[in-house]
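Notes, p. 3: input format for complexes.
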Amino acid sequence: MDQMTDIVSKLRKSERIAASEALYLWQNAPLWQLSQLAVEAKRRVSGEKVYYNRNYHLEPTNVCLFECKFCSYRRKEGELGAWRYTLEQVLDIVRSRKGSGATEIHIVGGVDVEHDIYYYADMIRRIKQIEPNIAVKAFTAVELNYMIHHAGLTLEQGLTLLKQAGMESIPGGGAEIFAHEIRNVICPQKGRAEEWIALHRTAHGMGIDSNATMLYGHIETIEHRIDHLMRIRELQDETGGINAFIPLKYRSAHNELSYLGETSVLDDLRTLAMSRLVLDNVPHIKAYWVMYGKSTTELALAFGADDIDGTIEDSTKIYSMAGAEDSHPTMSVGDIETICRNAGFVAVERDTHYNEIVRDEKTDK
Ligand code: V47
Ligand code: SF4
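Output follows (365 residues plus V47):
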């Protein structure tokens, strides 16, 4: 058997592929074959379903101590374009969106020295007082590691504090590329991969589930991407706490890596398919529509994604500031259903933990 036939046969039998096989596939498989294999793998997990949720983001500040080179969002205190909402402003946003049907608030900001973990725990507690049934998915591992260490707490102590306040899940950000030689160039202050992994491992052990991301399309190689996927797969073997993996395409507007430009849609599709094929133990692969734009999202569903994230309701600036097409990202449930139907699948509403949600057609409750 030649190497390609051997790898394809392994994947069709749901057998795990090694890093060297992933590299061979990535570099040699035609696009149609990656699509076919990835959709087969997706169907084994989620059949004809593509998941979405009703969500919005809360970005309390873009003031950040760090200076990640790919970031278009960060500002220094007092700099033009910097914002830092007061607690009351944050709570006003939550009050104003009450009754929208959202089941999740995704909170992420910058690494801000102004507030400590006790402030953020209080923020979550007060959000839950306004919206007791909404799931709070909050803070990247980088923000969490910073606030926990800054308070002199252990990971368990810090996460317990936030969990008791009402945080029930952790988003996938901050992972970037795990390989030290790349991380050290694009986000030197972010800490090593091991710290991101330790935070997620500890959270999983405490019943807090999470997502994982990979920022690709800058200075990394395919080998670095595979190494990243392998480390996610290892963590998932150990804990089983990762719900979804989200490959994030580097967007190049207004940041220090702009000179690199952006990778192609073909690369996006290969990356998505390879994520599905390597991460045989992560149930959901998310094509984050805000980052791709709506039409590429439909295409992404032909490459193994089974989730497109949510309605968003014009609540995030991270991607529009980095050059994403949609400067006020919002998707109605109707638009989501159309995208999924056009791609040959059925849209299914989920909660943060991927339980399906069925609403009364008349009341939408
Ligand atoms: O860690 C920042 C990325 C991440 C750029 O868990 C950029 O459901 C591309 O993690 N080009 C934060 N990406 C966002 C994030 C996320 C997004 C959607 C869903 C989920 C989830 C998590 O945004 C950062 C970084 O990797 N990012 N700047 C940029 N110029
Ligand atoms: Fe700060 Fe996050 Fe931007 Fe890095 S990616 S500079 S940690 S806001």
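DSSP finds 14 helices and ten strands in the chain.
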